[in-house]
Amino acid sequence: MTARNGDGSPPVAYVEELSNHVGERVTVRGWVAGTRSSGRIRFLIVRDGTGLVQGVVTPDADAESFDLAEHLPLETAVKVEGEVRADERAPGGVELAVDHVLPVHVPQEEYPIAPKEHGVGFLMQRRHLWIRGLKQMPVLRVRDGALWAMREFFKERRFVATEAPILVSTSVEGTTTLFTVDYFGQPAFLSQSGQLYLEATCAALGRVYWIGPVFRAEKSKTRRHLTEFWMLEAEVAYVEHEENLRLQEDLVRYVVQYVAEEHRRELEALERDRKLLLDEVAEPFPSISYADAVELVRRAGVDMEHGQDLGAPAEDELSKHFGRPVFVERFPVGIKPFYMKRCSDDPDVALCADLIAPEGYGEIIGGSQRVDSQEELEQQLREAGLPEEPYQWYVDLRRWGSTPHSGFGLGVERTVAWLCGIAHLREAIPFPRMLDRLEP
Ligand code: 4AD
Ligand code: MG
Fold it and tell me: What is the best residue among 154, 193, 255, 365 to mutate for testing ligand 1's pocket, by most ligand atoms within 8 Å of CB?
């Protein structure tokens, strides 16, 4: 048995930094993710949120620890002490020669998520536990990295982070997906997008963004739709359509490169091809008009008419064709919201673009140049059948100091799903909200 340090326990180290402590005794604080035995050696797999380490327990450890190593159930909260040893075969290049095992909490019931295949319904019902899973933890860490990269990108460019309210009295993206709440006896809505407010703050601060939750009462059960999701939105005064596209392209490339560099371990755990991701953003993103996109996908056998929104089959076809993020520009005004400026050479199409991710991850960004004339805005509100009164403050932005301005909204979960290579958005957020899911 190895002697313990003077105060009884060696310094705490997180699994992700163990390779800096080879030859030292450390304490790892975590949870039991697996146990197995081989002859007189016991293996205790411990996860601590930063990664997994294999603890090797031999009869040299104290007798109680040696015994515990065999019997601790899955998800026991545990502290293990031991020497960090280099081991090329181990994930992260190290293992822990455990000499002391200190259970913190030993479950009395069997952990419901055994390391076998479970149906998604079963797992979703236990999402509060499922997030501990070996494929779930890395996704949430990539999400954190992606959000961090977005903030860093905008900080570097001297944008101001400025928030939009969630309780609102207006719709942004059509009235069919509004959640209504009772606001002291008056109907109010949960925000579908912070855009209208960002247009106001951008006239105050020039370049603004926010990252926040938004809500859509989507009655569709697709793998690409949540009812509550996070959006990154940016809005810039004096910026027109083309420059808006370059900003989006730079942002997406920045986020992908950041995650590919800083989250190698997570991408490896997810078996995500880093090189493919990097290649996808290496070259300038192509653009195609809506009209040409419809032609292209129809030729490929997708059943759609000119004037319909791009559905999943059309988006998938475009992503297959380009193999890179692609901007689809110049949508018919009829399928776009009231706030978009129209193209000067064709008033039937909007000065806008959607960015379609590669590999079938669908639309990750929607953006446009905004209407900047008061008359046109009032006209477009009427055409959309929206009431004038609640939008008065928004019209005011065109009364005083109106400038050309543009912005966009990026879906955080769709971007994370693409980065991680996971098929369904429900795994790209800790607690997804969907048509049929409000729990846990
Ligand atoms: O295209 P959308 O609806 O655009 C807007 O809301 C604009 N007001 C944004 C702006 O210009 N400031 O939504 C933006 C992005 C989509 O491209 C998609 O990635 C994501 O948000 N998104 C969803 N993600 C998950 N679930 C849903 N139901 C989503 N709806 C849109
Ligand atoms: Mg859109």
Answer: 193
Are 337 and 211 found together in one domain? yes
- For residue 7, the tally of other CB atoms under 10 A from its CB is 7
| End residue of a domain, out of 39, 73, 105 | 105
194 lines ligand 1 (CB under 6 A): no
pTM score, two decimals? 0.96
With a 6 A CB cut-off, is 173 part of the ligand 1 pocket?
yes
Cβ of 413 less than 6 Å from ligand 1: yes
Binding site membership of 398 for ligand 1 (Cβ less than 6 Å): no
- Three-class DSSP category at 117: coil
The residue whose two tokens read 């560099």 is 261
Q: Which ligand sits closest to the CA of 198?
A: 1
Minimum CA distance residue for ligand 1 atom 23: 411
Residue of 414, 424, 433, 435 to test ligand 1 pocket, by largest number of atoms within 8 Å of CB: 414
Amino acid making up residue 260: A
Total domain count for the chain? 2
pLDDT in tens, 141-178: 999 999 999 999 999 999 999 999 999 999 999 999 99
Spacing of C-alpha 411 from chain mean position: 7
Model pLDDT for residues 47-87, shown as the tens digit of each residue: 999 999 999 999 999 999 999 998 899 999 999 999 999 99
Which listed ligand is nearest to 331 at the C-alpha?
2
CA dihedral 241, 244, 245, 248 (to 10 degrees): -160
- Alpha carbon 394 to chain centroid, angstroms: 30
Residue with tokens 């004038």: 388
Domain membership of residue 439 (yes or no) is no
Whether the CB of 351 sits within 6 Å of ligand 1: no
Amino acid letter for position 391: Y
Provide the CATH number for the domain around residue 68.
2.40.50.140
CA distance 304 to 27: 60
Residue 203 · residue 397 · CB < 8 Å? yes
* Nearest CA among 382, 412, 408 for reference residue 198: 408
Structure-model confidence comparison of residues 11 and 70, the more confident one:
11
Ligand (nearest to CA of 364): 1
For residue 17, give its domain range: 2-105
CA 123 to ligand 1 center in whole angstroms: 27
Measured in Å, residue 230 CA sits from the centre of ligand 1 at 9
Is 437 inside a domain boundary?
A: no
Which pLDDT value is given to residue 70? Answer: 87
